[in-house]
Amino acid sequence: MLTFLHISDSHISGDPEYNPPWETAPSPHPNLGVERLLAMINRLPFPIDFILHTGDVCADPRAEDCRKARELLLQFPGPMYCLPGNHDSAELMIDLLHDGRRLHVLRDDHVEIAGYHLVTLDTNGAGNGDVHAPTISDPQIEAFAERMKATGGGPTIVAGHHPLIETGVPWIDEGMRVQNGERIHRILRRHRDSLAGVFHGHIHQSMNTHSDGVLYVSCQSTWTNLAGYPGLGENERDDLTPGGFNLVMLKGSRSFVRRYHLARQ
Ligand SMILES: [Fe+2]
To answer: Which of 47, 127, 179, 228 is most buried, with most CB under 10 Å away?
Structure first.
């Protein structure tokens, strides 16, 4: 059995006074959520194989945010695999976070962990920059298809930052999703018998979508969470749902996902 924790959207900041520019009211500091997450993970009564962070590690693509992220994330148990989100600089993460032992930064990659393939897609596409609803290029999609083929039908986990397929929530589908994600879904569908799930973040809420035999799982942010419901056309805060993480246990063809919520202070 493979056991891992899925975390996302920590938005770690090197600025002790950080308040997001789009918020007019004071917001809780994102590093507090990471400290709460660490305390909770340290109390878990079971071992884990690794932690998967599906992006927006940092609040902004700045070196001081990346250095603070390294300081905080090195305190977590086990190796951590981090993907860049739209708030990150992948280059800075590789320079300042990645050490290849405790902290791994993955973009368009394929690594093997305890008999499983982890295939990642940098859903920011070619550019850095804050793109909420990117379009992935043909060469990047073709390279992803090749990486999936290279798994040879072995058990596989796929991860990226943005959601790929439609959910039914207009704000997510039109404003937060990979706009040509269906093309990637068609590749994933071909591998559904060996695919444990597609893990992502970006939408700051926990959500499962199951389509054509492919399971998509998103994770809450450790900081602030957002709403998703039929007809929601604009980003809306969900202050009733605390941050958290997913426990994922994989065995054979079974994918088990349990949500943990961070204790409120
Ligand atoms: Fe985020």
So the answer is: 228
